Amino acid sequence: MSGPLLDIRGLTIGIPNRNGPPLQIVRDLSFDIMPGEIFGLVGESGSGKSASALALMGLNRRPLTTLKGQALYGGQDLLAMSRRSMRKLRGDRISMIFQEPMTALNPLARIGSQIAEMFVLHRGLSWSDARPKAVEALAAVQVPDPEGRARAYPHQLSGGLRQRVMIAVAMACRPDLLIADEPTTALDVTVQAEVLRLIRELCEREGTAVLLISHDLGVIAQMCQRVGVMANGRLLELRDAKALFTDPRHPYTQGLLAALPRLGSRAVEGRHRLADLDTAIDRNAPGFAETYLRPRGEAA
Amino acid sequence: MRMPFRLNLTLGLALVSMVILGAVFAPLLTAHDPILDADLMNSEMPPSWDHWFGTDSQGRDVFSRVLYGARVSLTIGIVAQAINSTIGIALGLSAGYWGGWWDDLVNGLTNLMLAIPSLVFALAIMAVLGPGVVSLLIALGLTNWSWSCRITRGAVMSLKSQGYVQAARTLGYGDIRIMLTQLLPNIVGPVLVMATLGIGEAVLAEAALSFLGLGIRPPAPSWGNMLTDAREAIRSVPWATIFPGLAVFVTVLGFNLLGDGVRDWLDPRMQVRA
């Protein structure tokens, strides 16, 4: 392996403000993803995880704007690319799956055609050539009876199956990078484990790198090699997953881990309430004020 | 769920095909010429075996005039509404999806069109182009797209935040492809219902324009000018207005039911699988 697959430097996203400096949502975010790696991005709601992912795809909607930064992919800057060449990359080299499998599929199109359309769109296949490939793709995500399911409509499938179909669509063109934005949040725990295993195995087989976005530390611990912790639009800590969980450095990460409920932990002071994030964070730790700006909801 | 959807579709289909078949096979269905068989000795006769719908003030057979009139009225209704729907959907879809200055422009234009009474606008166009079927199509096809546009735009604006439209964007679909494959099929219901209502409106608008002498020139029959011709004698010769009116009613009802039925039929979620 040579260099990183995707090298993000100083990504800053914000809302331009006519009467002053722009309101920054994500500040100076830098990390890289190696080919075939599963990279985790954790953080609470509103910490800028999804906005960063959408910025990479060039899909942030107004008023969100990418203010600064680079995202180098194979020598090209994704953030400076023309709309047209970015559109060709999307779904082909860089794919994305979402949190909501219930709404992520077009309710009026059959499953098979939605997968087949990827081959038509990015590979220039005819529809008749693309359909058998769609069935293959369904088989690859371990959907039982792929031929029958290809003729089904989304509403006829369960949430777990739909998320598998989404993965099949996203992985149809064997992308280099799969961005999974909270892929299992809407699924129950058993299905969640299956879907995660599927993503891991499929990506391993295809050599696809994954940017896994989650607020679930358990999921991150299970899946990722390296993890970035985000809060308030900043990357606070970027470590090896194992190191992060055993030896968190940043006070926010320490607080985050301390706030996890533990089975059998019945310390006297912990008996009455779960430790919540704001009390678990040591605000007086050195370097805290510079990185973690303010608790949610408090004015700057 | 199953019964009413079938009823709509079959009844609508039956009524519409009855009207269309009547128009197409008019010469086979009646022995009377709608224009030339004016028999003043037999004017204003009530319905009889020879004249099923009676005769009008000039002794022409109302049944044959209704059949031949269907040709004109149906053509104008369907084609004019097709033009309206195409304009309205194209503008509404692009404006709702793209937003921004294009949306402002389309929206302004729509408001402008809604502010001008469409019949008056159509009248102005007819005055410039002169009477005739083609100018009727242009006049009616360009003046009544604002509602389709409105409805399309509204539906698209609520649909474009749906997961599958977002997902399509991340999967590399182009804007036009998203509009045609993701958005259009999902708004087909309201648009179709609008279109079928519009056919009825266009039939009525044709009647109004013909009444003002700018539509179909008499003696050629259209439902509109038949109604206006016989209007004054509605008390003494009711059949001369009832039957063309009934024809308009049946046509509009048929298209509405058909639109409803087709919408349900196209929606896979409405299908009950055994």
TrEMBL record, chain A:
Record keywords: ATP-binding, Cell membrane, Membrane, Nucleotide-binding, Transport
CDD domains the UniProt entry points to: ABC_NikE_OppD_transporters
Subcellular location: Cell inner membrane
Entry superkingdom: Bacteria
SMART domains xref list: AAA
Pfam families: ABC_tran, oligo_HPY
Keyword Transport applies: yes
GO molecular function, one term: ATP binding
Segments forming domain ABC transporter: 8-257
Bilayer topology term: Peripheral membrane protein
PANTHER family referenced in this protein's UniProt entry, alphabetically: DIPEPTIDE TRANSPORT ATP-BINDING PROTEIN DPPD, OLIGOPEPTIDE TRANSPORT ATP-BINDING PROTEIN APPD
Family, similarity comment: Belongs to the ABC transporter superfamily.
Name of the protein in question: ABC transporter ATP-binding protein
UniProtKB/TrEMBL annotation, chain B:
Family matches, as Pfam families: BPD_transp_1
Location(s), subcellular: Cell membrane
InterPro entries for the chain: BP-dependent_transpt_permease, MetI-like, MetI-like_sf
Source organism, top-level taxon: Bacteria
Keyword RNA-binding carried by entry: no
PROSITE patterns: ABC_TM1
Keywords linked to the UniProt accession: Cell membrane, Membrane, Transmembrane, Transmembrane helix, Transport
Main subcellular location: membrane
Annotated ABC transmembrane type-1 domain residues: 70-259
Signal peptide positions (record): none
Membrane topology: Multi-pass membrane protein
Parts of the chain that traverse the membrane: 112-138, 187-216, 237-258
Family: Belongs to the binding-protein-dependent transport system permease family.
PANTHER family: OLIGOPEPTIDE TRANSPORT SYSTEM PERMEASE PROTEIN APPC, PEPTIDE ABC TRANSPORTER PERMEASE PROTEIN
Protein name per Swiss-Prot or TrEMBL: ABC transporter permease
Lineage: Bacteria, Pseudomonadati, Pseudomonadota, Alphaproteobacteria, Rhodobacterales
